[in-house]
Design a protein that fits this description.
The chain is an all-alpha fold. It contains 51 helices and two strands. The N terminus and C terminus are likely disordered.
Length: about 1200
């Protein structure tokens, strides 16, 4: 009981009505207990100070809970005090609390509370509710609103707990609250239903706790009464009996009243809302009923309530199904509840088992865990078929599902029921470990699953639950090396192979401490505890297998499959143990066994395993390197001598060579080829004999195909090892060669009906793409000082400078070509685009053409790449200057200028670029609000200044999209952000202004969060009807870009050109050289266009015409698009370098439907010798110094 309640004996002694769930009119309650005129404890009611009377600040209950600065118990005690002074005003504050928590801006007044029914009040609030605003506190993102939801639930719980001894029985408060919540829960407004359902369910949970306490008190009172009554007459206290009897009666009345309240909530709200159209509302109901059944199982854990959870297992939303499973897990965890769950288990077991295959991985994981709990509670509850449905999930690619299935498998098959008895039996049999039978069972399970290539997945699934079993390498080695004892069966050959494969997988898992390939998103950083466990496991397995591996190889050296697996073990050794533990004799034994394996086998996988083992043991960081190197050299010497001798015999006998001669050459060549892959065997000069074999095969035509293939492979490795040693004078040439090779062997190789060449297609992985990009950044975008220093004193030699620039342009063009033809991912171009301003004179044409071609391939991905380049520049600036950016600095201005020029490349057709521009704004907004300020929410986000850069693209949004983007921006803004006017918030103000200008006429003012003003929209006269129709069609899908999946797939690349070198054409007649500055859109062209536009406007006004038929005019003239395709939007050559004023004039004077044909410009300084057509699909240029033509038409 709270102190505030104890001080009011009058309230505690009130008569209880017994039907508090009845939805009586509000005015009825007011008439029964009207206490108006008293002061409210907190000095307010529904946020209106005039009801207060004490001059305090008008702070509502909603604001107090939202701020969360006070302890919830003190807030509730304060409300209880105000309730004692004036019940109406206190309840009015509570009602408005629920209304405001729904995001409704309306307020229930005292007159409405007294004179209107609940339905009328809710209807009035519904009329004032703006669902489009998106201001719904319980679901808004951000830490403040998450805390608010927690405070909301805690407030209701504490309120009932503090009122449980008197106020909830006063026939007024609970009736009013339950009646209001019941009415709101039936509203058509989603926010009302969600808020009232959450409040009602938390209210019900609190009442269940009260009912449980009452039940406990009743039982205690009954026991005291029985004990007192059973005393003999002389010792029996009749007064105590009467008091106990009266207390029991009072507790029973309270219990009945609480049950009536719970029935009202359950039947009035839960029964209707557990099947609500909104998944989140259904999930709330199921989550809370699970709490009731666990908290008060005697009352709720029966089929009448369990059926709702069982039915909802079939819900179409994974979120709801997940809540069902978690609610059931809480019940099945308590074994004492199993008898009450028996009927439910039999009825819904099949559904639960089937949910282990749910399409939502989270649901499948929880379903498997629930099945595991059922198995723990009753072995007979699941049939063999049910268990088999779970078994195969250990091979799932989704690791959480596999681990959960591994836990089930461990509980069912691999858990020891009587460890002590099993250990005693193992000792009697002479075994050091009792896990022998479990390991045999694991092998049988692996073989019966018939997924032998997935041994690593099986081990990973069981790793968390069965580590003790999987790390028992001593037991595994005993089973492989020792004879079976009495009572044991001998392992079959198939079982031995499976056991070795599983053993190697457990060694890998222990040594690497991360899941196998295909599971998980990558290597995560290990904790200190995990790192220590990894080191201990690696030492343990090393010490064991240093001695056991030579014996295993000796036993199975004739079996290629077993040997290939066993030879993988040394790569997981801690090789320092050999020298630290003075175990060189075991190293010699291992080397001896490997040599025997090499001499006995010619299978590729065995030889590769041997070669890899030698390579690992020969690492220079270990002291055993010299010993291993000697053994390897001796082996290579013998094989080389044997190879040379057999080649001589084969070439001498020529066509008379028999099978033995061919086998001798082939077997030795296979061994040498396998070793040459991992070892530099250049000093043995294998290339010479391989060349002789190939030459003889060409000349005589009788060389066996297998020998020719192996000789080619060995020659290839020999050349590669020699190339590794070449380190000077080749980086740039190697880069150009690699770019051309990637172009040759790209996806275009199979075009034109050449699908048979599919195996030759090579797509560079992310690592190779990053290396290419880093090379370009290091060798192309260099400062002039770096270039001058590299000239070694030839700074004044203009020819050398031009030649160096020419080479850098070739490197950049080669890489950009890979981006254009979808060989390198388009986002890599961000690192290129961001250098446009700084290196415009040197590479401006190449970067511009790359931008044009990439936009032609995928407008949306190109836009995302542009904003990514600006984000990179912004991040670099943050790293240099810190979070407090000087927005007036030249660096910030440079980024804004680059953004402005990027914006100009989108052209005039806003409809064609609509979705790309909108996506660009979406990414920019998310970046600006990505990181909150560590100093607190009252400070701007770290990247907020980026909005000033993003505002440069606002002019490219059509009117409808400006409103959509503005709405999306407001999702990230808190209420306080829109009211801030400090300098640090100017980027947000500026960006909002850019979206509101020219947008919807009825919008919110930037300078006042609550006032509205009419936007100034330029009148568009003479707009062609065709344009109006197109705008209407496009506006029907307004805002659809917000629902796009951010993961974009690049469409099919452009047709790859005929490939030659990417260097300059020479000896071309000057009069036929295309002027690179004559492409459409130069600065002078832009001026001419603007002037032409003005002349046309004046002519239109002079002739009093209302529209121009540009389509007709276009039919009489050619359209010049440069290197762009016909369907690409116009990108003007020099529009990126034009002024802002010209662009604004153009946008204002011309309509979007106008198509402008620009004449070529001849006014820029000629630089033809430095600006070839690097992306001409007809021919790529040939470098006579080191390139030859590869393809010819």
């Amino acid at each position: 009981m709270s102190i505030s309640e104890m001080e009011d004996p009058e309230m505690k002694g009130k008569k209880k009505r017994g039907r508090p769930g009845k939805q009586a009119p509000v005015q009825e309650f007011v008439k029964k207990g009207e206490t108006c005129g008293k002061k409210s404890g907190r000095g307010k009611a529904n946020g209106v100070a005039q009801h207060n009377g004490d001059g305090g600040d008008p702070v509502t209950l909603f604001e107090v809970v939202k701020l969360g600065k006070s302890a919830m118990q003190s807030v509730v005690d304060e409300w209880i005090e105000s309730y004692k002074q004036d019940r109406d005003l206190a309840l009015l504050d509570l009602i408005n609390f629920f209304i405001q928590c729904s995001g409704c801006k309306g307020t229930v007044r005292i007159e409405m509370f007294r004179n209107m029914q609940n339905a009328e009040i809710i209807r009035k609030m519904t009329e004032e509710f703006d669902e489009d605003s998106g201001d719904y506190p319980l679901t808004m993102p951000g830490p403040m609103w998450k805390k608010f939801r927690y405070n909301f639930c805690e407030f209701i719980s504490v309120l009932i707990r503090q009122c449980q001894y008197s106020i909830i029985y006063d026939e007024y408060m609970m009736d009013t609250v339950i009646s209001l919540l019941t009415g709101l829960s039936d509203s058509q407004v989603r926010a009302f239903r969600h808020t009232s359902t959450l409040a009602a369910m938390k209210l019900m949970t609190a009442l269940v706790n009260v009912a449980l306490n009452l039940s406990i008190h009743q039982d205690n009172t009954q026991r005291q009464y029985e004990a007192e009554r059973n005393k003999i007459a002389g010792k029996r206290a009749n007064e105590k009996l009467e008091l106990l009897l009266q207390k029991r009666k009072e507790l029973q009345e309270n219990q009945d009243e609480i049950e009536n309240m719970m029935n009202s909530i359950f039947k009035g709200i839960f029964v209707h809302r557990y099947r609500d159209a909104i998944a989140e509302i259904r999930a709330i109901c199921i989550e809370e009923i699970g709490v009731w059944m666990k908290m008060y199982s005697d009352a709720f854990l029966n089929d009448s309530y369990l059926k709702y959870v069982g039915w909802t297992l079939h819900d179409r939303q994974g979120e709801v199904r997940l809540k069902c499973l978690k609610a059931l897990q809480n019940l099945y965890t308590n074994r004492e509840l199993f008898p009450k769950l028996e009927l439910f288990t039999n009825r819904f077991k099949d559904r639960i088992v089937s949910m282990t295959l749910d399409k939502e991985y989270d649901v499948a994981v929880e379903a498997i865990r629930l099945v595991t709990l059922i198995l723990q509670g009753s072995e007979d509850a699941l049939s063999n078929e049910d268990c088999e449905n779970v078994y195969h999930l250990v091979y799932s690619a989704h690791r959480p599902v596999a681990v959960a299935a591994g836990e089930f498998l461990h509980r069912k098959l691999f858990s020891r029921h009587d460890p002590q008895a099993e250990e005693a039996l193992a000792k009697r049999r002479g075994r050091s470990s009792p896990n022998g039978n479990l390991i045999r069972m694991l092998v049988l399970f692996f073989l019966e699953s018939e997924l032998h290539e997935h041994a690593a997945y099986l081990v990973d699934s069981l790793w968390e639950s069965s580590q003790e079993l999987l790390k028992d390498w001593e037991c595994m080695t005993e089973l492989l090396l020792e004879e079976p004892v009495q009572g044991e069966e001998m392992l079959s050959d198939r079982q031995e192979s499976a056991l070795i494969e599983l053993m190697v997988c457990t060694i890998r898992q222990a040594a690497e401490a991360h899941p196998p390939v295909g599971r998980g998103t990558g290597k995560r950083v290990l904790t200190a505890k995990e790192r220590k466990t990894q080191i201990d496991d690696k030492n343990k397995l090393t010490e064991h297998f240093i001695m056991a591996l030579p014996m295993l190889l000796s036993k199975y050296q004739a079996d290629s499959e077993k040997v290939a697996n066993l030879l993988q073990i040394p790569q997981y050794f801690d090789l320092d143990v050999y020298s630290a533990g003075r175990m060189e004799k075991h190293l010699d034994a291992l080397l001896k066994q490997i040599r025997l394996v090499v001499e006995k086998h010619i299978e590729a996988d065995v030889l590769e395993a041997c070669s890899k083992t030698y390579s690992i043991l020969c690492s220079e960081e270990y002291t055993i390197m010299n010993r291993v190197d000697i053994a390897r050299s001796q082996l290579i010497d013998e094989m080389t001598d044997r190879f040379a001798h057999s080649v001589e015999e084969l070439l001498q006998e020529a066509e008379e060579a028999d099978d033995d001669d061919i086998y001798n050459v082939l077997s030795t060549l296979k061994r040498l080829t396998a070793f040459h892959n991992a070892h530099d065997l250049t000093r043995w000069d294998l290339f010479g004999n391989c060349y002789r074999l190939l030459k003889a095969g060409i000349e005589q035509g009788s060389m066996p195909e297998q020998i020719a293939v192996q000789a080619l492979q060995c020659s290839h490795y020999s050349i590669l090892w020699q190339l590794v040693k070449i380190t000077e004078g080749v980086p740039s040439k190697a880069f150009m060669l690699l770019c051309d090779l990637l172009m040759i062997f790209s996806h275009q190789l199979i075009s034109g009906g050449r699908e048979g060449l599919q195996p030759l297609v090579f797509n560079p992985d992310s690592t190779l793409q990053n290396e290419l990009l880093n090379f370009v950044l290091d060798h192309v975008f260099i400062d002039q000082d770096d270039e001058s220093q590299s000239m070694e004193g030839d700074e004044e030699d203009e020819a050398n400078k031009i030649e160096a620039l020419h080479k850098r342009r070739n490197l950049l063009a080669a890489f950009c070509k890979l981006i254009i033809y979808d060989i390198v991912d388009m986002p890599a171009a961000a690192d290129i685009f961001k250098h446009y301003m700084k290196y415009y004179n040197d590479y401006g044409d190449i970067i511009k053409e790359t931008l044009s071609k990439t936009r032609q391939t995928d407008k949306i991905l190109c836009a995302k790449t542009l904003i990514l380049s600006l984000q990179q520049l912004f991040n670099e600036l943050l790293q240099d200057q810190g979070p407090n950016l000087d927005r007036t600095s030249s660096h910030v201005s440079g980024i804004k200028e680059l953004a402005r020029r990027f914006a100009l490349t989108f052209g005039l057709d806003q409809i064609k670029t609509r979705e790309a521009v909108a996506t660009l704004h979406k990414d920019g907004i998310e970046f600006a609000f990505k990181y909150q300020n560590p100093r607190g929410p009252e400070f701007p986000p770290i990247n907020l200044a980026f909005l000033e850069v993003l505002s440069e693209f606002s002019s490219k949004l059509i009117r409808q999209d400006k409103k959509t983007v503005h709405s999306y921006l407001e999702k990230f803004m808190s209420e306080s952000m829109s009211e801030r006017r400090e300098d640090v918030w100017l980027p947000l103000i500026s960006y909002r202004n850019s979206l509101l200008t020219g947008g919807d006429e009825d919008h919110m003012s930037v300078t006042s969060g609550s006032s509205s003003k009419t936007g100034s929209v330029r009148s568009k006269k003479g707009r062609p009807p065709l344009h109006k129709k197109r705008i209407e069609e496009e506006s029907s899908v307004e805002g659809s870009w917000m629902m796009r999946n951010d993961t974009l797939q690049t469409p099919g690349a452009l047709q790859t050109p005929q490939l030659t070198s990417t260097v300059l054409r020479e000896n071309r007649p000057a009069e036929h050289m295309p002027d690179p500055d004559s492409e459409p859109g130069s600065e002078n062209d832009y001026m001419q266009m603007s002037w032409l536009g003005q002349q046309k406007i004046e002519e239109v006004n002079r002739k009093d015409r209302t529209g121009m038929n540009y389509i007709k005019s276009r039919s009489n003239q050619g359209v010049r698009r440069g290197l762009m395709e016909d369907d690409a939007e116009p990108i003007f050559e020099d529009v990126m370098m034009s002024s802002r004023g010209q662009l604004e004039d153009m946008n204002e004077e011309f309509e979007d439907t106008m198509v402008i044909d620009l004449p070529p410009s001849r006014n820029r300084r000629e630089r033809a010798e430095l600006r070839p057509d690097f992306f001409d699909s007809a021919a790529m240029i040939e470098d006579e110094s080191y390139y030859i033509s590869i393809f010819k038409k």
